[in-house]
Design a protein that fits this description.
The chain has 2 helices and 5 strands, in the order βββββαα. It is an alpha+beta fold and 109 residues long. It has a 3-stranded antiparallel β-sheet. It has a two-stranded antiparallel ribbon with strand order 4-5. β4 and β5 form a beta hairpin. α1 crosses α2.
């Protein structure tokens, strides 16, 4: 069974936004799907793997709410693809799942 985790990679440059990515683990092999979601380290809860929406700037707050919704939709879509593949007894490598997941994220139903 494959699992999807949401991860945050901070920028190597201080004061710059880092990137959210999805980690798909299948058969003890972990692969990554990169996103365009950019956050500052203080806007990410590593413990809960979630965006922290605490900004006093209304524009930033709206941006974070939009990203939170996008992440939820993406992970739901990835989990639905994985469930459908497993239900049909499709055996795939983690690399295949990543490719199928990327297509799913780029072409929502």
């Amino acid at each position: 069974m494959a699992t999807v985790k949401i991860k945050f990679r901070p920028s190597s440059v201080d004061g710059r936004e880092g990137t959210v990515y999805y980690q798909v683990i299948h058969g003890r092999v972990a692969r990554q799907i990169n996103t365009s979601c950019k956050l500052f380290p203080a806007e990410w809860s590593k413990r809960h793997s979630r965006i922290v929406i605490a900004s006093s700037d209304e524009d930033r707050r709206q941006y974070l709410l939009l990203l939170d919704k996008k992440i939820a939709e993406d992970t739901d879509r990835l989990e639905n693809v994985i469930t459908a593949l497993e239900r049909n007894k499709f055996t795939a490598s983690s690399k295949s799942l990543i490719n199928i997941g990327k297509v799913s994220l780029n072409n929502p139903v």
